[in-house]
Amino acid sequence: MTDVKGLAVPLGRRLLAEGVGTALLVTVVVGSGIAAQRLSPDDVGLQLLENSIATALGLGVLILVFGPVSGAHFNPVVSVADWLLGRGNATGLRGRHVGPYSAAQIVGGVVGATLANAMYDLPAIQISGNERVSAPVLLAEVVATAGLIAVVFALVRTGRLTSSAVAVGAYIGAAYWFTSSTSFANPAVTVGRIFSDTFAGIAPSSVPGFVLAQIVGAALGGLMIRFLYQPLPMITFDDPGVTGPV
Prior knowledge:
The structure is a single chain. The protein is mostly helical. It has one domain (about 10-230): Up-down Bundle (Glycerol uptake facilitator protein), CATH 1.20.1080.10. The protein has eight helices and no strands. The protein starts with 10 loop residues before the first helix and ends in an 18-residue tail after the last helix.
């Protein structure tokens, strides 16, 4: 979600950045959730506060660290939206790279959850029993994901990518609280959180509903951007110079 200065970055390096970045994001989410559960076992509201602050701050830092390499998507719906919104003027991510980006993000999400488990002396591989699906929660995931896409690509199309770390981190931190789903808004993070049977986990049976809601939300957010903002002329990752918006 930030500019990349200099020559185009090879795909392999970008995929490594997306995988490691997503892994660390899920480690932050799950690890801070485990810590919050242990530090405040009798206060769910305080647990959520601790978890949301850590996630917002961690996400902002990760965008700053990995943005110059891969764009710091860490999220398959952001990668798809970047491709779709940039097709008309050849900006953003190439279509053939959406699949590899998404695969790296999903693998990273799983690795991040197992790393968090291991750091807290829990079984590295565990499956969550935290059922989360209900109509209001799925609606919240639509809203959360639409908002995330709107924030990211409003910054892209108005040339304010230097604000992405603060803006995206702040949005996710806020969305923890104003959405009943606590704003997963990310299929890779959702899949990763299957492997944490803790405060931050999600049962496998809840994942399809969450992912579908995220796809719908991303589509709505993308449509809003198409109507509100004109695309900026930028160079893609595969061209020399300054790379496209991600």
